[in-house]
Every structure is written in structure tokens, then in C-alpha cells.
Amino acid sequence: MTPFSLRIFVADGDPDGLRIVEKSNWIGKALVFPRALLPQVKARPELAQTGVYLLLGPRPDGEGEMLYVGEGDPIRPRLESHYAQKDFWTRAIGLTTATAGQLNKAHVQFLEARLIALARAAKRVPLDNANQPTEPSLSEADRADMEVFLAHMLGMLPLLGVHAFEQAPAVALPAAAPGQPAPTAPTLLYCRGKRVEATGYESTQGFVVRKGSQAVAEVVPSLESNKPARLAQREDLIERGVVELDGDAYRFTQDYVFSSPSVAAAFVLGMSSNGRTKWKDAQGRTLKALQEAELD
Q1: What is the pLDDT of residues 181-219, one digit of tens each?
Q2: pLDDT (tens digit, 9 = 90+) per residue, 99-152?
Q3: Do 64 and 122 touch, CB atoms closer than 8 A?
């Protein structure tokens, strides 16, 4: 991974207002703003350009966000239409170029299609997009340019609080041996319950539960009554195919990032759980004990 810097200009002096974001060695520019500011922000020249945009807002049936990905030639009329017709979104990110005319309709159709495909594959948030658009025909050179443009966008978006396109990080997972220095790669951890076993590890994105891990098929009644958001998340991941029923348990179809070890353990065990004590290494040491040992 290559280090980079972001320049964030707070255009009206309000940290929650319009922010203009530029990335080192990138021809692009992002405008980040709350929905309430669209009547003022729509006059910005950047929104008169061709580009892609993201609409984000709370899910109506559970914790977390949902996402809509779109493109516009230019962006402004599309945002005005969604301002009138889409209720869920509370903030928007418009992505175009610092100099007008560097993106055309085919370019942004390609970016839109790739972003939607990446979000569907990652399954981090539900999408408000009903269909998967077809990638337009681009020349070999244009396609290469757009892949570079996309890579810069994907590197920047997590710093703007957008994790919808991130796949679980691919890492080697050596198990830590007793008495040996901590490995540079994450330690493989286990969570075991009634006839289920899951493996996972901590990452910079959150806690990753690995493909093939199991989760109980039925949750305890207290989870349903006391943690409805956890139950809604479980139902959502089942619906989106992150887990599939395999015999009398669910099995993960992909590596999946949870926000914390406790959220991951609650999903696996079907009950509220302290992930710091439920996740253990091959020698039976808890995540809590491993973290305390690292500090010492």
C-alpha cells in the first residue's frame, strides 16, 4: 500500500457542512455534504460536471447505513431528483475531477457499474439500487485510466466514513506459539458454541470472521427482546447471502468484517457475548489476554 495525503477544505467553516476533499496524485475531487445543504451546494461548479455520487442514510429496519450509487452528466439534476424522490439519504458525496471535461458519460457509467458490483460483492451495507448496470464499452486506455481513478476513490472513501466497498483484508494467519514473539500477521482466533465453530482475526477494518465459519441457526430469546438491532443484522446477512443454512447451522460464504469482536461473537453464538473473552487462540488464550500481553 502506498502512503497518501488528503486535503480537506471546510468551505463554510462548519465541520458538518460542505467539505471539499482532494487526494495526493489524483485528478479527482469529492464534495461531501449533508442533504439539508443541497439547495445551497447545488450551485457549486463541480456539480455541473460529469461524475458519480453516493447517497447514504440510516437503514429503516436495523443499525447501520444503506447506500445508493449513481452517475450524472452532469451530477446536479440527479441530486435534485433524489432530493425530491428518495427519503432515506442524509448525506451525499459527489465525485468528479478537479478540472472540468476529464470525465465523459461512458467513464462515469463504468465507475457506477464497478462501484455497485463491488458493494454487492462486499455485502457490507444494503443497496438502494435495484439493478446491476452493464459496463459500457471503453477503449483499453480509457478502461485503464478509470481503474486508476476508481482505485484512488476506494482508497479515499473509508476516510470519509464509507466502508461499503471494502472486502475483508486478505492476510496470512500464522498461529502464535507459546513463548515466541507476536507474529506480524494477525493471530487466528476461535469462537466455539453449541455444535458450531468460527475462526477470525482482528484487522484495521474491524473483526473478520472467515469464510467457512459456522453460526448457530437459532438465537436465544433474550437477544430478540433486548438486542433487536443484532437480530435485524442477522436477518439482513442471511438475506444477502453472507451466511447460508448448512445442516443445523449457518455457514459463512465469504470473509466478513464485523464492527467489533463482540458483534461477531453475538452473531456466531446467537446471544449477547463479550468478544474479548469468547474469541481465543489455539492455546486457549482469550483475545483480552493476548491484547494485555502485547501491551506488557
Answers
A1: 544 678 899 999 989 999 999 988 899 999 999 999 998
A2: 999 999 999 999 999 999 999 999 999 999 998 899 999 999 999 999 999 999
A3: no
Residue for grid cell 442514510 = 57
Distance CA 124, CA 254 (A): 12
Whether a cis peptide bond, with omega within 30° of 0, leads into 74 is yes
Task: Please report how many Cα atoms fall inside a 13 Å half-sphere around the Cα of residue 46, on the Cβ side.
Answer: 23
Please give the model's pTM, rounded to 2 decimal places: 0.83
- Rounded Cα–Cα distance for residues 129 and 160 (Å): 21
For the chain, give the longest Cα–Cα distance.
63
- What are the start-end ranges of the H helices in the chain? 38-41, 76-85, 105-122, 140-156, 221-226, 228-239, 261-269, 275-278, 287-295
For residues 82 and 69, is the Cβ–Cβ distance under 8 A?
no
